[in-house]
Design brief:
By secondary structure, the protein is an alpha/beta fold. Helices cover 23% and strands 12% of the residues. The model is unreliable at 1-16, 22-59, 75-115 and 497-501 (pLDDT under 50). Pfam families: DUF592, SIR2.
Length: 501
């Protein structure tokens, strides 16, 4: 199956990361730059996607039961056609992890940019490892800015440090032309964060929650499922409901180019995801509790349901926008989201009240589009502003209800300092990145248990008598070194978890 690809832009900016779809590369085979802050523009160059970008067959998940048994799940496994495929594997298996740690990677001399095999290595082994450690600490953009621009290190040396080599037709290219290759090489290296050896257990998670003062929380659709809002990729998720529209790819529904060509398709479906009378889940109020305890640095949410606002979370950044505002795709005129509410609920295409309308076949109409970030659109400016600041402060990362398959948000894990602990709370394992502890199962159940263990009271009507204080010990199985299976967890048949069957 072919996916709709975004047209490459000759003036793509390192300051403008865009949301990209599962397995989406631009026409030249490159991914758009993510999380950048380098003051320059460039023309994308041909790069070959790495091994993480391969298409894989959707696996069949098993659901974990608290009596230590597994049953076949009716829930389809998340699609694996991902930018960094999300095929859950044993997260401690580094056999296929090209960059599992600085020390385990190849040393200088194994790859030379010079064609002369007897040439002197560009870097000593210590310089090679030092540059990699610096990238793990600083992130892609800060690393390139410091070493390429501030310290004026030759770009060929930096490429060498990350085992990157320009194509033959670019061997004599300028530094500016080679920046996209360096950016991709560093970002690819950083995706392979090494698990921290000293963070392994539920007790470690509880200790981190108590001690941390700047917790970054990244949330996805999984925190809103218990509110009645469908996720995207499960059996009853949003993508499974799109068959009536006969799309080549369900993601076309949220593709900006497809929207401009066939807006009626999106507006025929939009009312099904429009925020209505949904109420926040215990997971939302867990984040609010962190904020009340002055521990929340910021909640980066991929959701568009605005339930964070309903839970009165203040430090929130909506990475993928929301229905709160709408914008004309032609002139940029903005209106309050309520202005197009009736159109959405009645499956009508709203048009810009300021632009003259020309409905001829060869004319692009002035459509009003909700300010949700479609595939191919840049993320809100707030993302560019706050993330570089937050990455310098964060002392704990918690990923909740997300399988991390949409860039550039999925790049956050590699871009914060690698010595910052990272915890997952999700139904399914995340295997394409190494997290320190994965708490697998129903998000609401897990956060209630964490609050109970921390001695915090989480209040919500769905909890026993409205409080986590009345919750009994949640049943789970511990899989060394860092997986916990709570009720609702879903794992693959060939994962270590299945030794309990």
């Amino acid at each position: 199956m072919f996916t709709r690809r975004r047209k490459s832009s000759s003036d793509a900016s390192l300051l403008s990361p865009k949301r990209i779809r599962v397995n989406e590369a631009s026409e030249d085979g490159t991914y758009p730059p993510c999380l950048p802050s380098i003051p320059c523009t460039f023309t994308p160059l041909p790069l070959t996607p790495g091994p993480q970008d391969d298409n894989l067959t959707d696996p069949e998940y098993l659901s974990y039961n608290t009596d230590n048994t597994f049953t076949k799940s009716d829930t389809n496994a998340p699609t694996n056609r991902s930018h960094g495929t999300d095929v859950p594997t044993n997260s401690t298996d580094n056999s296929s992890n090209e960059y599992s740690s600085v020390e385990d990677t190849i040393v200088p001399g194994a790859l030379l940019l010079q064609t002369d095999s007897d040439a002197t290595p560009l870097l000593t082994e210590e310089e090679y490892l030092s540059l990699r450690r610096a990238a793990q600490k600083k992130g892609t953009a800060n690393f390139i800015k410091e070493y390429l621009f501030d310290k004026a290190m030759p770009i060929t040396h930096l490429l060498y440090a990350f085992d990157a080599q320009p194509p033959q037709n670019l061997v004599n290219a300028s530094d500016i032309q080679l920046i996209p290759i360096l950016h991709k090489a560093v970002s690819k290296f950083l995706r392979h964060r090494k698990k921290l050896d000293h963070i392994n257990t539920l007790e470690d998670v509880v200790r981190l929650l108590k001690e941390s003062k700047n917790i970054m929380v990244l949330t996805g659709a999984g925190v809103s499922v218990s509110c009645g809002i469908p996720d995207f990729r499960s059996e009853n998720g949003i993508y499974s409901r799109l068959s009536e529209f006969e799309l080549d790819d369900p993601q076309d529904m949220f593709d900006i180019n497809y929207f401009k060509e066939r807006p009626k398709v999106f507006y025929s479906f939009a009312k099904k995801i429009y925020p209505s009378n949904f109420k926040p889940s215990p997971s939302h109020y867990f984040i609010k509790l962190l904020e009340d305890k002055q521990k929340l640095l910021r909640n980066y949410t991929q959701n568009i349901d605005t339930l964070e606002q309903s839970a009165n979370i203040n430090n929130i950044l909506q990475c993928h926008g929301s229905f709160a505002r709408a914008t004309c795709v032609k002139c940029g005129y903005k209106v309050d989201g309520h202005m197009i509410k009736d159109d959405i609920l009645n499956s009508r295409v709203p048009y810009c009240p300021r632009c003259p309308q020309n409905m001829s076949p060869n004319h692009n109409p002035a459509l009003m589009k909700p300010d949700i970030v479609f595939f191919g659109e840049k993320l809100p400016d707030e993302f560019d502003h706050f993330f570089p600041l937050d990455r310098e402060k964060v002392d704990l990362l918690i990923v909740m209800g997300s399988s991390l398959r949409v860039a550039p948000v999925s790049e956050i894990m590699g871009q914060i300092p690698h010595d910052v602990p990272q915890i997952v709370i999700n139904k399914t394992p995340i295997g394409h990145m190494e997290f320190d502890v994965q708490l697998l199962g129903d998000c609401d159940t897990i956060v209630a248990e964490l609050c109970r263990l921390c001695g915090w009271e989480l209040k919500h009507e769905k909890l026993p008598n409205g409080s986590s204080n009345n919750c009994t010990d949640a049943k789970f199985e511990f899989l060394k070194p860092c997986w916990y299976l709570f009720e609702g967890a879903q794992v693959l048949p060939d994962e270590d978890a299945c030794r309990y069957v």
